[in-house]
Design brief:
The protein has 128 residues and is an alpha+beta fold. It is built from 5 helices and 4 strands, in the order E-H-E-H-E-H-H-E-H.
Length: 128
C-alpha cells in the first residue's frame, strides 16, 4: 500500500522564482531517490476559513502565498529509505541553508492511505 509525505509552507511572493527553482531540483532529487510521484502547487483557489485554513496554519504574512506539496512512495519502508538518501544528497545542502521561505512555519507529515483511487493512464495524460 502506498505512503504519502505532505508538506505545507508560506512562501514570499517575491521569492517565487527562487522557490520554483528549488522545487524543480527537489522534484528531481526525490524521484531519482525513489519517490513514485512528486508535486508542489501554489495556492490558487484557497478560501479563508472562519476557524482555520491553510493561511492560518502557516501564519501567513502580508505578501506571502501558500505552497503545498506531496511525494508518493510504494510504502513506508521505501519512503524511509528515500528520505535518508534525499537528506544526504549534496545538491540540496545549499538550498537547506538558504531557503527562500521561513522553514519554521513549514509543516509536514507522513500518511498511510485509508482509500486509494486513480484515473486511467490515458485520462491522466490528457489532463497534462
Amino acid at each position: 500500500m502506498a505512503y504519502v509525505d505532505i508538506f505545507v509552507m508560506p512562501v514570499p511572493e517575491a521569492n517565487m522564482d527562487a522557490y520554483k527553482k528549488m522545487a524543480k531540483l527537489s522534484a528531481k532529487v526525490w524521484v531519482e531517490h525513489g519517490a513514485l510521484q512528486y508535486f508542489e502547487g501554489n495556492a490558487d483557489d484557497v478560501p479563508e476559513g472562519k476557524s482555520t485554513d491553510f493561511y492560518r496554519a502557516v501564519k501567513r504574512k502580508e505578501g506571502e502565498t501558500v505552497v503545498v506539496g506531496y511525494a508518493i512512495y510504494k510504502n513506508r519502508k521505501q519512503r524511509d529509505e528515500t528520505m535518508k538518501k534525499v537528506m544526504a544528497d549534496p545538491r540540496l545542502a545549499d538550498q537547506m541553508k538558504n531557503m527562500p521561505f521561513d522553514g519554521k512555519r513549514m509543516f509536514w507529515g507522513g500518511f498511510k492511505p485509508i482509500v486509494e483511487a486513480a484515473a486511467k493512464a490515458d485520462a491522466m495524460a490528457a489532463a497534462k
